[in-house]
Write the structure tokens for this entry.
Amino acid sequence: MVAEGLYVASAATRLSLKNRILVETLAGGKDFDVQRFVPEARATLLDLAAEAEQDAQRIEADRRRARGRYTDSYGTHDYRSRDVRNLRTRQRQSERVAQELRERADDPDELRTLVEDAREAAWAEVERNLDSTLRIEAARPDLEPDYAKLREARMQSLRLVDLPRLAAHRRRNAQGAAGGLNGPVVDDAPVVVGGVDLSELE
């Protein structure tokens, strides 16, 4: 549980740093410098350590209230005497997580590693976005091996789904303009050739 708590805290710190790096280097146009982000890494770890300490204090209060209570529990957090041992274990785990995070916050090598990992995550996100954008903008039918097959499926979807839906929408609009749903029904029967409503191609 302690290892899991530290993993989650490290992931949260990297995510915070990654977002800051993206904002400063891409939006702000600044060069990347590890040392500029070390104070933020330290502050984030200390904030998470404080949260873990608050958890430990809350669990300790729950444990004290649970002592001497032997009735049935009314809910998930309605602790009883039988929960005291488990609560003590959870309290110690939160205290250990807080201690570990404070030690990492005072370790320059750990802070630099967090910043470098965040930089790698930021670059990976930029790389994915660039790759996706280039694939979309550079897409050409002759370079897509399944273009013909996918085009036939798209055209069938257009004929069977999109055009009938559009025709129904236009008929509703025409009826509304001619006096509403309770007014006279407008005969707007489409001219269909080869399964395609020609009026929709105007």
